[in-house]
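User: Working on a comparison across species. This one is DUF2075 domain-containing protein from Companilactobacillus halodurans. Can you predict its structure so I can line it up against the others?
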Amino acid sequence: MLESVFPDKELTKEQQKVFERIETFIKDNLNGSKKAIFQLNGDAGTGKSIILTKLFLAIEKRAKENKTNNYFLVNHPELLKVYQENAGEFSELRKNRFLRPTTFINQSHKKQTKADVVVIDEAHLLLSESVNYNNFTQKNQLEEIIKLSKVVILVFDEHQVLKLKSYWSKNLVDQVIKKFQAKFEEATLMTQMRMQAPRKVVRWIDDLTDKLQLDQDLVSKKDYLTMSSNYDFRVYSNAEKMYQALKKKNSEVGESRIVATADYPSTLDGKKHYVNEGQFHLPWDQYNYSKVTWAQKPETIDEIGSIYTVQGFDLQYVAVIIGPSVSLSKDSIVVDPDKYEDQEAFKKRHEDDLSDLHTAKKSIILNSINVLLKRGVQGCFIYFHDRDIYDFLNNQR
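Assistant: Here's the predicted structure for DUF2075 domain-containing protein from Companilactobacillus halodurans:
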């Protein structure tokens, strides 16, 4: 998990080419009169964070010589822990340069300072409107960061937008960039690097979340359906059997966890809240106050992780419970936002910029499923609350 964002990880040829493009972009624009923005696109698991961490290490190595003031931002507390821990392994990196966006913005305004280069991982998690609860009072975080920087390098994946208060689309990002009349370049990573899976498995996931279609090209086993001998991809009819299989994998290879869509009630009130599916009964993860990430704690094999726990991370095996908001109708997937329990994700926006709120909510649910299903390096197990989906996949309908 940690090595996936370690700064000295070797890059592929595709990643190296993009890395060199961004380095050139920074050098060409650092002393320019205009704002400069480079946008790195790519699906979950294509290696965007690997490029960013290696890039920031290179920037910081030159910081003293160039007298630059640089920051690495990520709006994800679990990921921030990893970046700060990794920073301690390199003398050139300082932990106080790895911040949450709100901290950077408020700190910069208070001290009346500006940055030279700001790198933003998971920019799709930036707030796109003011949220007093998060101590952010300006209009949107991307705009504020651009104001406070000379060069901005950001990672963006429209398919990983998970909340209305951080609702981004390519159009909204383009509007912010256009407002500054900035110099702009972008690159897109295409190769899936996390999942050691054949293309047909990745396509199965994308067809489910992008097209609401299910490929029935699955072979029936004793307890589950499968479609690949190279990647351990399974669809279970029984959540408890799936969990027991996952625990076995965890004892064999480590860092294997069960997660679920936010279709089951949970409140941050200090009490345990459970996901129940037949004989399966486990509590949601608790707020993680320690510096150790959730999946690195041995005891969390007995908890259920959420999208907020595992987004951006690698797991060896992931088991995903897809809850009641997803069902089958006439051989197609149907998504019902009214059955989604994550009220924070659907908290009403102040900005009246969404023409179709129902579609936006459905996109958030499908994005979360896509992200969860793409966590596993060696394998992915799936359980659907709606038994009709399993029966359809098993050609029993």
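For your comparison, note: The chain has two domains: 2-189, 199-393.

User: Helpful, thanks.
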